[in-house]
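ERR on first pass: missing label on line 2. Operator R.T. fixed the label and resubmitted. Corrected input:
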Amino acid sequence: MAKWFISFIGIGTIVSVMLIILVIFLEILPLFTYNKLVKKAELELSEPIIASSMGPWFEKALTLNIQGKVLVYDLKSKSIEKEISIAQGQESIESVEQGLDQTFTLRWSGNTLSRVSLGFKPTYDNNSARTIVFNPKLDAAQVQFKEPLSFGLSRKSADGMTLFVGLTQQGKVLAQTITTTENFLGEVEESKNSFTLKYDQPIAWISANKSGNRFYSLSKDGLLEFWDVRADSFHSRGHVRLNISDRQVIAFKAMVGIDEVAITYRNGEVEVVALASVDGDHLKPEIIHSARVSDLNITNMMVSPRNRTLFFVSEGGALTAWYSTNQRTLIATKLEAEIQNLHLSARGHGLSILQDNKRLSLWHWDSPHPEAGFKAFFGKIWYAGYPEPDYSWQSSSSSDDFEPKISLVPLIYGSIKGAIYAMLFSVPLSVFAALYTSVFAGTKVRAIIKPVVEMMSAIPSVVVGFLGALWLSPLIDNHLLEVVIALPIGLLVLAFLPKLMGQVRGKDLMMLKPGTVLMVSGVGILLSFLIGLPVSRVLESTFFNGYFRTWLVETMGINYEMRNSVIIGITLGFAVIPIIYTISEDSISSVPRGLISASLALGATPWQTAWRVVLPAASPGIFAAITLGLGRAVGETMIVLMATGNTPIMNASIFEGFRALSANIAVEMPEAPVGGTLFRTLFLSAGVLLIFTSCLNTITEMIRHRLAKTYSKL
Amino acid sequence: MKSDRFFIALTSAALAAVVLMLITLILVVVYNGMGAFWAKEMSQYRFESGEWVMGPVTDRAVSKKYPGKQRFQLKVGNRDLYGIDFRWVEEAEIIEHHVATEAWCFERMEYGNFYASTAEKKEDGSWLLKDVNGKEVTLPENFMVRHYQPNRLGIFGKSKLYLSKWYELLSEEPREANTEGGLFPAIFGTILLIFVMSVLSFPFGVIAAIYMREYATNGLLLRTVRVAVNNLAGIPSIVFGIFGLGFFVYRIGGGIDELFFSNSLPTPTFGTGGLLWASVTLGLLTVPVVIVSTEEALSVIPKGIREGSLALGASKLQTLVKVLIPMASPGILTGFILAMTRAAGEVAPLMMTGVVKLAPSLPLNHEFPFLHLDRKFMHLGFHIYDIGFQSPNVEAAMPMVFVTTLLLLFIVISMTSGAIYLRNYMRKKYTSAHL
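pass 2 clean. output:
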């Protein structure tokens, strides 16, 4: 009975490890796989429509027909709840443009453009029961253009300027702005401006961004131009030429973000143009994404009002959702019939799809992590506003139009950089120290050193990190030159040490007690720092104008950060030394005595034996020690958190900082919304850490296992 | 060979360097930590402009403005008058200097220390203080923590002050955003964490080790368990933290909230970090330590003992409980102590599962249910990180950080020494033939 209980607990260890792996995996999975399109309702329409939309929580929907009649449907009862007309004396609607929110620009048959917002809002009664209410807003302003139009759009900016733009059938762009200002007396003043865009080529497509301060034009020969919208003119910000010689453009729409435009071609390709590459002192438009999203001909494209998702409708009822930044196809599905029309609800969660010209189906688009994906985490991405594709980690910023950059590559680079510098510092120290303890030191020294090193391993990493960052870092900062020359001076001192000891004590180094040698070495090290101080002062004032640090920056052009990799190397190294030392020492001591005796018998000196026989024989164990130390260095959090500048840059310079995977989790987790992309990405980085340390652990175990076998044979 | 000597000296230097690093670390912490509360002599300086500054000297450096001269940092206090606590003063700019024998140091509940040239106690108990430039400040009685004249204190006086500050540290709550006052809640939180963690992880670890050593048959299962324990030991602490957050706090905690505390929702009770989840997470982290120590302790016991006990008619369970565990207890205890040491020192997993900068109440008090496992708590290790890196005034906080570090280091080193001593004792006991 007790046996079962005890066995159960014992197996619990396996369960714990499996659980950790499982939990992390489950949190990561939605990043890569969760994209759902679910049909919520279907309506049979009695007449053709030109636009449709859906309210929040999938309770209400609306349709707009050519005469300007809006029908509001209640989706639960599938009945028409309300009917209103938004025509203000016009005849029929010829085209509709949706401006990345619930506002539609209607182009009427008399070359008039008008704006209407067809939105819904929730209301709550006394029992907190919710009703969705249709909340239309008809804009009084209407503009009639003198020439026949083929397309029209309008935008209203936050500072009160309404922009109406009409594209004539000849390819001319006519614009009118209405600026309303309120003066200090509270009177509203309206000023109108009409102007024509001066362009030598006929324009085929126009679009504008959500806030209405940017305008985009695509000429018939493929020149895409970006414009700044002013009250009385458009001011060019640059252009890029698209290759449309053998491709037909079927959609041209601005996306969310300040300056990103999507161009869809009939052959199934899409391009995204944004202000990206640097041209002198400003950015110019560049094609930042180019991909084939469908093998069929594309008939329509809609832009999500919420993020950079693009929806493509292809022949045969095929529907593809594609995220532009990481060029990731979120879903590619086929509906039963050809899709005439596709509209998105205000929050980007709802799709209203018209098929067979009379069947309107309403869908829930659930895609919480479109910006994730293998390419986003491990590949180079060309973000809008950046000069080229790059690895970048920047999870938040103060602007609203910000796109989180979630590449793990700078963090992995940081972890590895920190670990390497820590290894560079600690491996020579620990292995040589272990060599001395095992081979040259006596049992008395060993008996004292072992607990001392164990004490070192017990010191919490918070303490090590704190001292490194707040005590060592300013110290090295103030005495940089001395630290740099301490090593050469130290080696010089060591070279003279044996001679000195021989002369003072009258004995040869080898005849002295190991404890004495140790103490003398210690004194030697202290001495080299003491000598170093005045020497560095002299050097500093003669060669470096009194300040080594400024000399580094000004003359050598090296950027010196106070929290840099040298500090990390020393601090993280300090934490790792006990591990490497202990295991190396164990393995060096396990080298069979016979081997050592044989070497000495053949005439080798003690050092030759140590260096050429013992060390190679112990090398698998030492390698295991280094691997284990590496695992600890990569996984260490507090020290890298405190002693680096936590800047997620990829720079190999020893004088620059970095951000490690582990520190990143500690820093970002408290601010990450639960279940959001950043939250799951942090789990992914924990998963990467886990895989890395598990691999290192397994390698160590395999080496140890083989070692045990080798030595049992000897 | 001549170069031999050099290389041997090099290796000894490597070992000496390692030991020196450790000694330096301990010395720096001890020197700064012990020295933090020793009252410093106050000096008074006048500039050409007629302005005076007064306070203890806290740092010295080479002057950049006047080559060849010194500059030093003075703690001028009086933050409510001047807005800054510390000020760098150039030696070359000083006209007059005396030791301010009559100067007072008033430690306050707000705005830090006040260094006064004169101090008068009024009838209502409050103090009228004048600083070195003549500016006046009134200090109500209940805002004063202590007052003394540092330059007038002899060794005896300074020692009394020193001890009283240490007593305050260990028994009072922190103030001024953790940069002054005491560590009592942090110490209490750390001890409570260790206690709750032990209750959860020690039985698990000891029984698992018993399984591995006494009950498991040498086969795939045992090898898998060993692999699992090794992997558990190698997982970085932050991964434990994130697992604790994702699994214990949000999933299990969320579930508990839905079942038992749904009337408080959306305010979480167990669905957020707290003492329980932090202890469980740390417990999982330290289980391998306990397992390894217990296993080692059991493996050193000679086989003959087990066989003798079974031969005498005891069952396996009786042998285990009455013979083996008592004999292995020093080793098991070593494991306990090492695990507790880790609990005191690990910060990363705690940051995500329930440790806070300032807890409004202790997790153990006289209200039912007395032990509040859902409360957030303070921790010494996190306190060091918080004061050193998250406080608004790191310079003023430095003495406090060193003192906290000293305390933590003291706890960790004494526990580790105890563990090492126990382990040596146990080894000696069993490598000799006696029982």
